[in-house]
Design brief:
Layout lengths: L3 E2 L5 E2 L1 E2 L4 E2 L15 E6 L4 E6 L3 E9 L4 E8 L8 E11 L9 E5 L2 E12 L2 E12 L2 E12 L15 H14 L1 E2 L6
Antiparallel strand pairs: 1-2, 3-4, 5-6, 6-14, 7-8, 8-9, 9-13, 10-11, 11-12, 12-13
């Protein structure tokens, strides 16, 4: 069992879903509660979402994971200079059928049943991890994916990239973004 020794001499363990160490006594926990959000609306596929201020919107970004491939809108986090984080974004797409997951939990977002799955993978010193939500709506499937690409701390991340980024903060932001999705009503619905 791994433990992190805190400045006061106590020890803390890892906590799900990201297996990051729990905060030491007196440390604040990461949360999306102090982040300012703005609304983004896509009338093409019919949704709105709350996006952290400072994130860049890129339409027509392709995402490929083990479970699906889709082109949609990505909301990209600003670069975190000096950390192991290479890329962080939240992706929204509509596909013809929902991906299947080995392990998932059921959640409801805007009245629609979604499957929520955590995933991770490694390759060439890189760590890929995230969370995907998939739910059937309007004869298709909405797929929401929070995506993190980082350098493995044990690898050579390059000059000035030695600090671990705040993974819990990103998973909290991804959760907040997913829960903020609203589906737009189209005339005739």
């Amino acid at each position: 069992m791994e433990a992190k020794i805190c400045p006061d001499g106590s020890a803390v363990g890892r906590v799900p879903p990201t297996c990051a160490f729990a905060p030491c006594p007196g440390e604040s926990t990461s949360s999306a509660s102090s982040v300012i959000f703005h609304s983004y609306q896509d009338s093409g596929i019919g949704y709105s979402i709350s996006v952290p201020s400072g994130w860049t919107t890129v339409e027509s970004k392709e995402v490929v994971t083990e479970n699906y491939q889709a082109t949609g809108t990505a909301f990209i986090a600003p670069e975190e200079t000096g950390t192991t984080l290479g890329e962080a974004f939240f992706h929204v797409a509509q596909v013809t059928s929902c991906p299947s997951f080995t392990e998932s939990t059921s959640v409801t977002i805007a009245g629609v049943a979604f499957q929520r799955a955590l995933w991770s993978g490694v390759g060439a010193g890189n760590l890929y991890e995230g969370v995907t939500y998939a739910g059937s709506k309007d004869a298709g499937c909405f797929v929401l994916t929070g995506y993190l690409h980082s350098c493995n701390l044990g690898s050579d991340c390059g000059p000035g990239r030695s600090a671990q980024f705040d993974k819990e903060k990103f998973f909290s932001l991804f959760e907040t973004m997913a829960k903020s999705v609203e589906f737009l009503v189209h005339p005739g619905d």
